[in-house]
């Protein structure tokens, strides 16, 4: 089991965002957390990333306890996760290459290895000729791909995605769903994906978790749902 | 960490400056509060400070908007011009007004003395604080918010109900700074014969050489800070964090002045004429008396270069310290940092003399001579007195960054140092530069601290202007001031031109 | 990239300036704190530097009412003195420092020619190059002010100005009056001043400028303030007050030089003190714009500088005046309205 949430709860300003949330994620699974806005799905992601500490319950990654008893035991930078944010958060002052290189530099990879991994991932997302462009010069879809590449180039244990496709037009949305699945097939990683769109959820996920008002209403594999 | 090292001088010095009077305990406070006179003086000070703040804000806010958001020609030139009175010692401005009115008899001169004159001179001196801060904070407003408003209303309404409320933290900061600066000013009120509270502390130093009483007399000035901070807390209850779009290449929407442009230009020009050009022309005119510039150059010696160097270094250190402190306040890591913010403002409000004496008491020992006998001591003084400026501006600059920027770096494995230097700092560049500029101006014009701690033979330019004022000819003094203004503005002008070229 | 190179250039420039400051530490130095106006004292110090090869590092002072300065530094630095010599512009400050144990006794060989009234008997300070406290009046007045009692005469109601008596030589003057007249008479005099609408200025220099500008008819200032305005051809004239028999006399305020207790460079300090007390220095200060009166006999002076023997001084003892000054300070504070 790669990721485990055990009875995790979190409140802000008196309101319970997540209540008694338990979930196990296996390696290479594609879990989609589906739910309306305000149901707590983004909070779950941020708890896993380590930006928030759970008020109660525990979180384990790869068997190791990373958060429990109201405290963060392992900082986000040590959890080896990848994340694509809702606003993408591409750094405007760095080129595409600079954005990708950042995480590799942080891990102390030598230059030759960095170059190799960057060109590898750029090829995979078909953005090679944009290596020296700035994010501002790219289209929405292109920025998405760069954000994906940045998260994946460091070979994270799991990839977290927070409603990444919600701002895109229908065609682009469909295309990128395919992208994500293709990347998953070639690279192989665990995916934790958050969305409010049912169709998206069922196309991308192997297992779908329905959340409402901070708790899991229903969960099951895609086939189980369809029955 | 580094913060403790940077803050140690601040904190310890604060303790020292209190212990000077702590030894003699409450006797000074008793004497201070005993007679009625200090209360009268305090009232005068509060009235002067309130009026000055009101005028400076009322004039400075529209000017800041005009210079940074409209298509008014020469916006930056005007901004630079209005900054001039802040650079010259306010006392000189008062004397310039006195001389100017002496020449233009028809305007009368009696009204200059007393409250109206003080308000006029100090407003023109501290107006740039409001203008600069307004311009800095306006840059942090998300253009989307204004555009959304523009779809349904004209600019006046959008400004009033959307833009200005969004820059409220900046306005409040500017108002507080002007208020505190006016409270601490005694040179101008003394010359214009309006008695203020700051004189009390000063007199204890200058006439009685009584450090304990002087510090005790300075504390009420700093206590005013606490009141102001309480006010501020009330007005700024929620932390408004707004998302700014990723591309910083986008310029915020400019307001087209259209047909009004001519009139506005004339209006601004007229204001500039009265508040800036007129006093400066008097100075220039006086300085033209035979050989004044030659004498100025020879008398100025190395002090001009020294001042520029100290100010540049001081501003850089302040930018660094301010960034660290501002980052922690912004991250609200611990409630302790709120107290730190109050502390920096408290130090800002204290007269430079008090801080100076504290510095001497702390650092004038054989063991620390390598600091005390060098310009480093002046820099420590700057750090103590002016960190409020850079830390507050940093908080504003950081507030406009989407948190996801830093979080993305964190997830990718970057520790605090890497993500701060590679991601946060570059993204907050604009704000940090503004902070540097404001710190530079204040370090350059500093008198109170420099006067007391400069290593013998290494005086700064404002100090030299004042020492030469004693029986130096008015031509010489005028020439020195003009020199100071020119030397300050020219590099700033070049810097801003370079900045603009870089941004395009 | 542009910003980074710009920053580097600026940094390089700054460091060059700073290093050039630190590099200048020659072998022989003397540190002097100076309360005499920089425009007058600096040339003398530069001459000393040139003639002896000892580098002078100076801290100059502003007019007292404009900012705090040298005195406060000396007092604050007492436990670890940075200064070697203090050149005070009047002896009261020298007395205050003596009382606080900041000065050390040194009797210079050049002090021999200076009258005893202008020296500390134990050698803690020595006077030289004096100013007289004079009445500076607008040129063309029908009646000239010839006594400080003019401040109380109704014909000059509201037309006179005096520097703030809490600071500088004006304090010395008031304290001297208290010593000579006694508390009652002196207080009565000050009250009369108030009743007669006297205006208080921030300094002697400002008083002189106000009279020169025609804002007031006369002011009590130092003779060097008066002399410098006259050299600038301003429409003013100087009167030495109360010279007739039975009148109180004119206050003579010498410069005072002293050695600091624990001075870092004591040998050079003595050299400087000797230099300042020499006849040559007094000659320079007499011919300079400050037109100060030499205390040594037989010093060359320009015609407009009155010789010390021709002025009737107020008969006082500076130590006593210093004590009196500290006594009356609270009263003066109330009088000036603080």
How does this structure look, described?
The complex is a heterotrimer of chains A (227), B (504) and C (338). Chain A is of the alpha/beta class and 227 residues long. In chain A, 34% of the residues lie in helices and 30% in strands. Chain A has a domain at 91-155. Chain A has 7 helices and 11 strands. In chain A, strands 7-8-9-3-10-11 form a 6-stranded mixed β-sheet, sandwiched between helices. Chain A is globular and about 45 Å long. By secondary structure, chain B is mainly alpha-helical. Chain B is built from 25 helices and no strands. Chain B has helices spanning 2-23, 27-34, 37-69, 75-87, 90-103, 115-138, 143-150, 155-166, 168-184, 187-191, 198-206, 211-235, 261-287, 292-300, 303-331, 336-349, 352-363, 369-372, 376-399, 403-411, 416-427, 429-445, 448-453, 461-469, 474-503. In chain B, helix 3 (37-69) packs across helix 6, helix 5 packs across helix 13 (261-287) and helix 9 (168-184) packs antiparallel against helix 12. The two termini of chain B are 39 Å apart. Chain C has 338 residues and is α/β, with parallel strands linked by helices. Chain C folds into 2 domains: 27-130 and 252-309, D-Maltodextrin-Binding Protein, domain 2, CATH 3.40.190.10; 131-251 and 324-335, Periplasmic binding protein-like II (D-Maltodextrin-Binding Protein, domain 2, 3-Layer(aba) Sandwich). Chain C contains 11 helices and 10 strands. In chain C, strands 1, 2, 3, 4, 5, 6, 7, 8, 9 and 10 form a 10-stranded mixed β-sheet that branches. In chain C, helix 4 packs across helix 11, helix 5 crosses helix 6 and helix 5 crosses helix 11 (318-335). The chains are: A alpha/beta (227), B mainly alpha (504), C alpha/beta (338).
Quick summary of this structure?
The complex is a heterotrimer of chains A (227), B (504) and C (338). Chain A is of the alpha/beta class.
Indicate the radius of gyration of chain A in whole angstroms.
17 Å
What oligomeric assembly is this protein in?
heterotrimer
Chain-averaged pLDDT of chain A: 89
Total strands of chain A: 11
User: SSE order of chain C in H/E notation?
Assistant: HEHEHEHEEEHHEHEHEEHHH
**Largest sheet: number of strands, sense, barrel closure of chain A:** 6 strands, mixed
Strand order within the widest beta sheet of chain A: 7-8-9-3-10-11
Shape of chain C: globular
CATH topology of the largest domain in chain C: D-Maltodextrin-Binding Protein, domain 2
Indicate how many domains the architecture of chain C comprises: 2
């Amino acid at each position: 089991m790669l990721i485990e949430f055990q009875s995790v709860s979190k409140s802000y300003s008196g309101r319970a965002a997540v209540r008694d949330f338990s979930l196990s994620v296996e390696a290479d699974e594609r879990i989609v957390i589906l739910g309306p806005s305000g149901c707590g799905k983004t909070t779950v992601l941020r708890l896993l990333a380590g930006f928030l500490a759970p008020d109660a319950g525990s979180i384990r990654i790869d068997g190791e306890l990373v958060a429990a008893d109201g405290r963060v035991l392992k900082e986000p930078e040590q959890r080896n996760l990848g994340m694509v944010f809702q606003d993408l958060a591409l750094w405007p002052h760095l080129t595409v290459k600079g954005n990708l290189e950042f995480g590799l530099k942080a891990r102390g990879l030598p230059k030759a290895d960095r170059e190799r991994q960057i060109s590898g991932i750029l090829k995979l997302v078909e953005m090679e000729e944009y290596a020296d462009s700035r994010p501002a010069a790219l289209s929405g879809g292109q920025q998405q791909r760069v954000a994906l590449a940045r998260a994946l180039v460091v070979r994270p244990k799991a990839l977290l995605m927070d409603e990444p496709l919600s701002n895109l037009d229908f065609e682009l949305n469909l295309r990128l769903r395919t992208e994500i699945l293709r990347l998953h097939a070639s690279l192989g990683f665990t995916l934790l994906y958050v969305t409010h769109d049912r169709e998206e959820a069922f196309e991308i996920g192997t297992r779908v978790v329905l959340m409402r008002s901070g708790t899991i209403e229903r969960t099951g594999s895609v086939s189980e749902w369809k029955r | 960490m580094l913060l403790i090292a940077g803050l140690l001088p601040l904190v310890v010095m604060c303790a020292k400056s209190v212990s000077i009077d702590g030894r003699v305990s409450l006797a000074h406070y008793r004497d201070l509060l005993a007679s009625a006179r200090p209360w009268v003086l305090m009232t005068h000070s509060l009235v002067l400070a309130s009026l000055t703040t009101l005028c400076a804000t009322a004039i400075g806010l529209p000017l800041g908007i005009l210079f940074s958001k409209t298509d008014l020609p020469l916006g930056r030139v005007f901004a630079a011009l209005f900054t001039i009175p802040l650079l010259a010692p306010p006392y000189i401005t008062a004397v310039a007004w006195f001389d100017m009115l002496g020449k233009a008899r028809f305007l009368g001169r009696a009204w200059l003395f007393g409250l109206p004159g003080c308000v006029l001179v100090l407003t023109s001196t501290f107006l740039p604080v409001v203008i600069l801060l307004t311009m800095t904070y306006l840059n942090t407003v998300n253009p989307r918010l204004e555009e959304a408003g523009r779809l349904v209303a004209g600019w006046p309404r959008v400004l009033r109900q959307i833009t200005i409320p969004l820059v409220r933290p900046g306005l409040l900061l500017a108002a507080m700074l002007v208020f505190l600066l006016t409270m601490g000013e005694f040179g101008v009120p003394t010359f214009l014969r309006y008695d203020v509270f700051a004189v009390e502390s000063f007199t204890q130093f200058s006439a009685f050489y009584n450090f304990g009483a002087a510090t005790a007399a300075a504390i009420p000035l700093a206590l005013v800070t606490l009141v102001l901070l309480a006010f501020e807390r009330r007005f700024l209850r929620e932390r408004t964090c707004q998302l700014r779009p990723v591309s910083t290449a986008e310029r915020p929407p400019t307001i087209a002045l259209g047909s009004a442009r001519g009139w506005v230009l004339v209006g601004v020009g007229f204001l500039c004429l009265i508040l800036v050009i007129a006093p400066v022309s008097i100075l220039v005119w006086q300085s033209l008396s035979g050989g004044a510039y030659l004498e100025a150059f020879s008398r100025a010696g190395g002090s001009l270069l020294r001042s520029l160097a100290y100010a540049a270094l001081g501003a850089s250190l302040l930018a660094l310290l301010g960034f660290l402190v501002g980052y922690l306040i912004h991250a609200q890591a611990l409630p302790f940092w709120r107290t730190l913010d109050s502390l920096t403002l408290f130090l800002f409000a204290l007269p430079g003399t008090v801080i100076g004496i504290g510095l001497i008491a702390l650092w004038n020992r054989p063991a620390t001579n390598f600091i005390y006998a060098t310009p480093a001591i002046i820099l420590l003084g700057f750090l103590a007195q002016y960190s409020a400026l850079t830390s507050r501006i940093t908080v504003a600059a950081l507030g406009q960054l989407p948190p996801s920027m830093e979080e993305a770096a964190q997830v990718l494995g970057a520790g605090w140092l890497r993500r701060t230097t590679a991601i946060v700092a570059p993204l907050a560049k604009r704000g940090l530069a503004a902070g540097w500029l404001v710190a530079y101006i204040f370090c350059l014009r500093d008198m109170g601290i420099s006067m007391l701690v400069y290593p013998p033979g290494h005086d700064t330019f404002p100090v030299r202007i004042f020492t030469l004022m004693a029986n130096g000819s008015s031509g010489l003094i005028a020439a020195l001031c003009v020199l100071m203004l020119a030397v300050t503005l020219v590099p700033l002008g070049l810097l801003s031109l370079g900045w603009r070229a870089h941004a395009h | 990239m542009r910003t980074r190179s710009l920053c580097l250039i600026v940094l390089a420039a700054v460091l060059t300036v700073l290093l050039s400051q630190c590099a200048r530490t020659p072998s022989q130095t003397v540190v002097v704190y100076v309360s005499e106006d920089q425009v007058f004292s600096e040339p003398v110090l530069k001459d000393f530097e040139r003639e002896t090869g000892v580098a002078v590092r100076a801290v100059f002072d502003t007019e007292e009412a404009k900012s705090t300065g040298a005195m406060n530094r000396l007092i604050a630095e007492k436990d670890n003195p940075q200064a070697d010599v203090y050149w005070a512009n009047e002896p009261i400050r020298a007395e205050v420092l003596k009382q606080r144990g900041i000065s050390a006794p040194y009797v210079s060989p050049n002090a021999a020619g200076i009258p005893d009234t202008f020296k500390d008997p134990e050698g803690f300070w020595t006077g030289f190059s004096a100013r007289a406290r004079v009445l500076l009046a607008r040129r063309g007045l029908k009646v000239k002010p010839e006594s400080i009692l003019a401040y109380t005469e109704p014909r000059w109601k509201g037309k006179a100005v005096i520097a703030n008596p809490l600071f500088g030589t004006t304090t010395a003057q008031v304290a001297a009056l208290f010593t000579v007249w006694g508390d009652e008479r002196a207080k009565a005099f000050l009250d009369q001043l108030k009743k007669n609408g006297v205006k208080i200025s921030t300094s002697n220099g400002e008083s002189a400028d106000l009279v020169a500008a025609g804002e007031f008819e006369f002011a009590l200032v130092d003779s060097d303030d008066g002399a410098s305005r006259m050299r600038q051809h301003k429409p003013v004239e100087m009167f030495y007050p109360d010279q007739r028999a039975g009148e109180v006399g004119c206050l003579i305020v010498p410069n005072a030089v002293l050695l600091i207790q624990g001075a870092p460079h004591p040998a050079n300090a003595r050299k400087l003190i000797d230099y300042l007390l020499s006849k040559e220095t007094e000659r320079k200060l007499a011919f300079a714009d400050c037109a100060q009166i030499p205390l040594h006999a037989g010093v060359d002076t320009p015609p407009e500088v009155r010789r010390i023997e021709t002025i009737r001084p107020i008969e006082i003892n500076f130590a006593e005046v210093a004590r009196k000054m500290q006594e009356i300070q609270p009263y003066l504070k109330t009088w000036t309205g603080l």
